[in-house]
Design the sequence.
C-alpha cells in the first residue's frame, strides 16, 4: 500500500517549500504571494529503512526496493474556503483523497514573506483550517443523508455520518468518533475532520532546536504526540548537500533526524502501519501493511492471487534472519516458522509465501 499525505495550511506558510524539501525537488512553485499553488503537486518518496541494505547484503539481491510515501502539496486555504473563497471547494476536494493530513502552521516572523493575516497566531490559523474542513463536511453529510441519497449509502457509513452530524451541530469533539468505528469505514466516509492529522510548526532557522514562543504555545495546547517542529528552509538546505555534508551540517545545527524521517515516523504511528520484507537473489523489498494484518492480507499486497491462493507463509524475524545469515541457516537452526491464515504479521518479518495458482 502506498501512503498519501496532504500538506495543508493557509497561504504563505511554507507548504511548497516543505514539499520541495521532502521530495528533494523543485516541482512546487514557492513564491511570496498567496495561491501560487493552484493544482496540487504530488511527489513520491522512498521510505528510508536501514534494514533493507542488511537483508540485501545477506541475500545477495540484485535490487533493493523501498516502500513509498506520496506527499501532496495542496493550495492554501482561507477563511470561507467551504463557500468557495480562494477556490476553496476545489482545494478541499483534493484533501479528501489523502490518507493523512499534515497541517503546516506558520510559527515565524518575517517582513519578507507576506502573511494573509495581520499577525502570527498559530492557534487562530489552525482554527480557520479546521473550521473550513468541518463546514465542508457538514455540507457533504447533509447532502448524503437526504432521503433520496441515503438509500445509496452503506448502513455503517450512514451511522458515521449521523454521529458526525450530531457532533458538529452540538460543537462536540468530532475526533472522539474515531474510537467508535472501524478505521477502514472512517476512511470510506470521506470526512475531512476524521482524517488522521500531523501538526507541523514551521519555525525560523534559529528556532529549529528548541522552538520559539509560537511553537511552544501551540504544543502546550495540542500536545507533542502528533506535533513536530521543523524549519522548511533548513530542510531545503539539507537536501542540497551530499551525505557527508548533510551529516556534518545536521550535527552543527543540533538535529538528529531530517523532517522527512520525522514525518514518516509520525505518519506510520498515527496510521498504525508496519513493514514486512521479502528477500532473495532477485530483490529485497519492503511492504507496508496495517497493524494486525493477517498473512493472506499481507500476501495480497504483492498480488491478489497470492491472497486468494494462500497456503502458508515461511516466516523469519528480521533479527533471526540477520543472525543466521539468511533463509537456509534460519531453517536449519529452527528459526524459520510455517504460519497459516490466522498469523498476524509483525513489523520486520521476512516472509516467503506459498500459494496455489
Sequence:
Amino acid at each position: 500500500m502506498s501512503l498519501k499525505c496532504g500538506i495543508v495550511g493557509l497561504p504563505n506558510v511554507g507548504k511548497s517549500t516543505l514539499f520541495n524539501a521532502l521530495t528533494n525537488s523543485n516541482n512546487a512553485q514557492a513564491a511570496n504571494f498567496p495561491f501560487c499553488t493552484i493544482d496540487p503537486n504530488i511527489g513520491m518518496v522512498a521510505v528510508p529503512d536501514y534494514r533493507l541494505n542488511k537483508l540485501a547484503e545477506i541475500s545477495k539481491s540484485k535490487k533493493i526496493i523501498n516502500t513509498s510515501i506520496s506527499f501532496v502539496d495542496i493550495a492554501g486555504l482561507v477563511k470561507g474556503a467551504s463557500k468557495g473563497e480562494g477556490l476553496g471547494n476545489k482545494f478541499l476536494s483534493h484533501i479528501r483523497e489523502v490518507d493523512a493530513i499534515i497541517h503546516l502552521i506558520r510559527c515565524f516572523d518575517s517582513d519578507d514573506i507576506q502573511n494573509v493575516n495581520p499577525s502570527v497566531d498559530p492557534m487562530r490559523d489552525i482554527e480557520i483550517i479546521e473550521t473550513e474542513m468541518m463546514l465542508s463536511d457538514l455540507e457533504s453529510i447533509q447532502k448524503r443523508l437526504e432521503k433520496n441519497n441515503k438509500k445509496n449509502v452503506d448502513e455503517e457509513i450512514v451511522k458515521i455520518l449521523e454521529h458526525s452530524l450530531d457532533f458538529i451541530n452540538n460543537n462536540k469533539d468530532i475526533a472522539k468518533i474515531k474510537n467508535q468505528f472501524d478505521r477502514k469505514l472512517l476512511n470510506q466516509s470521506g470526512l475531512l475532520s476524521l482524517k488522521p492529522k500531523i501538526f507541523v510548526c514551521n519555525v525560523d532557522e534559529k528556532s529549529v532546536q528548541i522552538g520559539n514562543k509560537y511553537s511552544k504555545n501551540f504544543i502546550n495546547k495540542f500536545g507533542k504526540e502528533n506535533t513536530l517542529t521543523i524549519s522548511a528552509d533548513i530542510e531545503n538546505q539539507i537536501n542540497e548537500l551530499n551525505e557527508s555534508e548533510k551529516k556534518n551540517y545536521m550535527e552543527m545545527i543540533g538535529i538528529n533526524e531530517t523532517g522527512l524521517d520525522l514525518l514518516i515516523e509520525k505518519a506510520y504511528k498515527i496510521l498504525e502501519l508496519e513493514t514486512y520484507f521479502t528477500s532473495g537473489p532477485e530483490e529485497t523489498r519492503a511492504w507496508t501493511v496495517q497493524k494486525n494484518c493477517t498473512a493472506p492480507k499481507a500476501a495480497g499486497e504483492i498480488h491478489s492471487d497470492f491472497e486468494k491462493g494462500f497456503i502458508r507463509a515461511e516466516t523469519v524475524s528480521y533479527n533471526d534472519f540477520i543472525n543466521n545469515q539468511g533463509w537456509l541457516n534460519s531453517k536449519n537452526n529452527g528459526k524459520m516458522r510455517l504460519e497459516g491464515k490466522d498469523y498476524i504479521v509483525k513489523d520486520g518479518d521476512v516472509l516467503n509465501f506459498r500459494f496455489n495458482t
